[in-house]
Design the sequence.
């Protein structure tokens, strides 16, 4: 078995285990394979194992992979920072955008979504750890922003996404994740069709599932360590 296939099995087991501990069904948690810096061939291996949702951070790199994998039925998620001049290509080529944190970007995505495609699935990114240099809207801005975005015609608001501050402190990790769950539950009352709480990465996926994540975004645990960091989109 390839190491990617083996990793895929292990990640699946970790998800099952965490769900069981939380008295949840494993089917309630969608695995998003984060494939930034990975080759189209590596994605293909994972697809053959049954993976369907893939997340990308860098536009040009992702467009190359999307073009190379048109024979597969992949759900493509954009999860990186978004500049205004990138919205058209994102609206044309992706199924989901999880990194929306301002109205201007959401409006452009809605306007530029090709009418022949279904509405674009959007998650609002929340800066849950209140980090000054981080993407995401502040938790206390989320409600107003979500109401605005939900009114756009070619957008379906699916939920919230967060990247909590990196820390080894398990209590801090758990606190941020629990805050996200509380915010999600509050906003869901006004937006009952929202079904996605996207949080949890390789290092905290099990805690995230215990705290209510419905989607975990996993790169390293599936593909191994990334050997280069791209800084250009
Ligand atoms: C890279 C990335 C991930 C995956 O991180 P790993 O630690 O490799 O699992 C998840 N979410 C976002 C937004 C990312 O940029």
Sequence:
């Amino acid at each position: 078995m390839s190491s990617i296939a083996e990793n895929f099995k292990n990640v699946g087991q970790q998800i099952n285990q965490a769900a069981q501990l939380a008295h949840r069904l494993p089917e309630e948690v969608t695995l998003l394979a984060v494939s930034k810096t990975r080759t189209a061939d590596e994605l293909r291996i994972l697809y053959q194992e049954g993976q369907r949702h893939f997340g990308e951070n860098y536009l040009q790199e992702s467009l190359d992979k999307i073009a190379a994998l048109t024979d597969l039925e992949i759900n493509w998620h954009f999860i990186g920072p978004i500049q205004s001049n990138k919205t058209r290509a994102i609206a044309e080529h992706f199924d989901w955008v999880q990194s929306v944190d301002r109205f201007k970007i959401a409006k452009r995505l809605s306007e530029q979504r090709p009418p022949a495609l279904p509405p674009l699935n959007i998650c609002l990114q929340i800066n849950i750890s209140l980090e000054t240099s981080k993407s995401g809207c502040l938790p206390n801005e989320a409600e107003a922003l979500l109401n605005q975005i939900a009114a756009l015609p070619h957008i379906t608001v699916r939920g919230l996404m967060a990247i909590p501050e990196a820390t080894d402190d398990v209590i801090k990790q758990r606190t941020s994740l629990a805050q996200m769950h509380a915010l999600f539950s509050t906003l869901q009352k006004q937006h009952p069709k929202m079904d996605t709480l996207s949080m949890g990465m390789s290092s905290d996926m099990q805690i995230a599932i215990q705290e209510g994540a419905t989607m975990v975004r996993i790169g390293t645990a599936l593909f191994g360590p990334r050997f280069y960091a791209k800084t250009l989109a």
